[in-house]
Amino acid sequence: MSFCNQIKKRFIRLSRGQRKVAQFTIDNPNVIATHIASDVGKLIGVSESTVIRFCYAMELSGFSELQEKIKADLMGQDDKIEQSHPLLPKKNVNLLNEVMNRDVASILNTINIINEEQFERAIKVMHESECLYVLGLRQSLPSANFLTCTLSNYRREVKLIQPNAENIVQQISNMEENSMLFVIALDDNAEDVLTITKMAKNKKVKVIALTHSCISSLRGNADVLFTVGAQKSALAETITAAHSLIHALVEGMVAQNKKQYTNFQKVNAQFDNNSLYLEKTLSI
């Protein structure tokens, strides 16, 4: 049995902090194998002592032995000649159950690695910022559209940064200190996203980033960074987890002042109804 499978068998018996370390180890074995315990703790959002306590809970002598176990697992994976595509179901497996269970697993993994203090900080920033900008390029653009539309149901001053150089530069120049930039970067190509994020930080804008990798280059440039999905998840599963977290963040923002956001919804709905009535009247 691989060591990661041993972790899964003991998962339920671990403390909450140790579960975060366990899930991270399962999803990011290469990071465990190549980083020291203190760095791993920072990436996960737990203390170094929690990482060590996880090792003891797994009946290991310490972090070095954990690295040895994980390296052995990785060498065993290299010996496998054939790997099935994650989106191709095995024979006699119900496709509906297979796909939706992977989505559930991606969401559950995200729950386990989310830092609650970071979550609370993010929703506070979203609530207090006067203007919210949303950035998502390429495969992240649909998720950026989803966040923009969801936020627009509850508040004014929500702007999706359009993916062309002229609009990006113009909108970044319009940002003020009381603005916030929400960056969604779910693909591997983050060079341009990083450049835009640095431009926003130079304007002293708060940045919340949502990525698929805990070692994303955005980490040092975001006030809050969330990792969604798992290392080996297909993009579709990662997007599902991202949208679930987005939903939770918006709900958290609304909970900061439910009356304020509910009133905006009512006024906005009334405005839409009046506009629709006017359009019908003019067409007669």
CATH superfamily of the largest domain: Glucose-6-phosphate isomerase like protein, domain 1
CATH architecture of the largest domain: 3-Layer(aba) Sandwich
Tally of helical segments: 13
CATH class annotation of the largest domain: Alpha Beta
- SSE order: HHHHHHHHEHEHEHEEHH
Number of structurally distinct domains: 2
What's the rounded overall pLDDT mean? 80
Low-confidence stretches: 78-85
- DSSP helix fraction: 55-70%
Structural class: alpha/beta
How far the N terminus sits from the C terminus, by CA atoms, comes to 74 Å
Pfam family, one: HTH_6
Keywords: DNA-binding, Transcription, Transcription regulation
Protein name: MurR/RpiR family transcriptional regulator
Domain SIS: 122-259
What does this 3D model show about the protein?
The structure is a single chain. The protein has 284 residues and is an alpha/beta fold. The chain has 2 domains: 76 residues, Winged helix-like DNA-binding domain superfamily/Winged helix DNA-binding domain (Arc Repressor Mutant, subunit A); 161 residues, 3-Layer(aba) Sandwich (Rossmann fold). It is built from 13 helices and 5 strands. It has a 5-stranded parallel β-sheet with strand order 2-1-3-4-5, with helices on both faces. Helix 11 links the parallel strand 3 and strand 4. The longest helix is centred in the last third of the chain and has 26 residues.
